[in-house]
């Protein structure tokens, strides 16, 4: 696994490759490029299900960025002030891969741009559909009282909140000739036996 104590560079292409490798086989990690025509070249990354992922808001963010000009030497300061003034969220500069990864898995959106040494953590967490409740038919006395729902996306988010590590892998596919049901295989890389993971993947497919 990539070293989490490394510093984030000012090269967005390098950082995108790093984070794509870090979140390899995590199909809930969503990457979006920023239109460079406005003077900013970079990308955003978020965890699907852990943020307010309404399409128009993501498009709005990219539109705001692509229509503005910023000086490379003050990229982080200018971007943070710009976004804090226009969006109902707070922005914070993260300079270490580990800190940025923790923020991402906590529900924040990360923004990387050429010329900015580090990334902006944009707090958009806590906006998933409904809260996880204890199952009425399976009450417990000790331990977590979380219960799975009928929503695959919500269930994956529940596991992400409990296991905040990029080692939690998520692979999805469609099964059934008629139903075409979406199923996801989740496992912790380095703990789950790879032979068992491969066998389950083969049986599902």
Strand-helix topology:
Blueprint: H1 12-22, E1 29-34, E2 42-47, H2 55-66, H3 75-86, E3 91-94, H4 97-105, E4 108-113, E5 119-123, H5 152-162, E6 168-175, E7 181-188, H6 194-204
Antiparallel strand pairs: 1-2, 2-4, 3-5, 4-5, 6-7
Describe this protein's structure.
- This protein is of the alpha+beta class and 205 residues long.
- It is 32% helix and 21% strand.
- The chain contains 6 helices and 7 strands; from the N terminus they run H-E-E-H-H-E-H-E-E-H-E-E-H.
- A hairpin with a 5-residue loop joins strand 6 and strand 7.
- The longest helix is centred in the first third of the chain and has 12 residues.
- The radius of gyration is 19 Å and the shape is elongated.
Task: Please describe the structure with a list of short key phrases separated by commas or semicolons.
205 residues; alpha+beta; 5-stranded antiparallel beta sheet; 6 helices
State the gist of this model.
With about 200 residues, this protein is of the alpha+beta class.
Which runs of at least 5 residues are low in confidence (pLDDT < 50)?
none
Helical stretch tally: 6
The total count of strands amounts to 7
How much of the sequence lies in strands comes to 15-25%
Please summarize the sheet with the most strands: 5 strands, antiparallel
What is the oligomer described by this structure?
Answer: single chain
Order of helices and strands: HEEHHEHEEHEEH
Rg, Cα atoms, Å: 19 Å
Q: What is the averaged pLDDT score?
A: 79
Strand order of the largest sheet: 1-2-4-5-3
The level of helicity is: 25-40%
Helix-strand category:
alpha+beta
Q: Which shape, going by the Cα principal axes? A: elongated
């Amino acid at each position: 696994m990539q070293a989490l104590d490394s510093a984030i560079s000012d090269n967005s292409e390098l950082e995108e490759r790093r984070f794509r490798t870090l979140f390899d086989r995590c199909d809930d990690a969503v990457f979006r490029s920023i239109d460079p025509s406005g003077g900013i070249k970079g990308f955003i990354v978020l965890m699907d299900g852990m943020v307010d992922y309404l399409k128009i808001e993501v498009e709005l963010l990219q539109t705001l960025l692509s229509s503005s000009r910023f000086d490379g030497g003050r990229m982080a300061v200018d971007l943070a002030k710009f976004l804090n003034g226009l969006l109902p969220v707070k922005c914070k500069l993260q300079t270490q891969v580990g800190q940025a990864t923790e923020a991402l898995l906590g529900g924040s959106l990360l923004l990387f741009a050429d010329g900015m040494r580090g990334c902006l953590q944009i707090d958009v967490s806590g906006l998933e559909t409904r809260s996880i409740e204890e199952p009425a038919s399976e009450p417990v006395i000790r331990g977590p009282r979380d219960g799975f729902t009928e929503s695959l996306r919500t269930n994956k988010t529940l596991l992400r909140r409990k296991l905040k590590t990029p080692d939690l892998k998520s692979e999805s596919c469609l099964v059934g000739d008629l139903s075409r049901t979406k199923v996801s295989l989740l496992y912790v890389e380095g703990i789950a036996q790879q032979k068992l993971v491969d066998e389950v993947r083969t049986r599902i497919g």
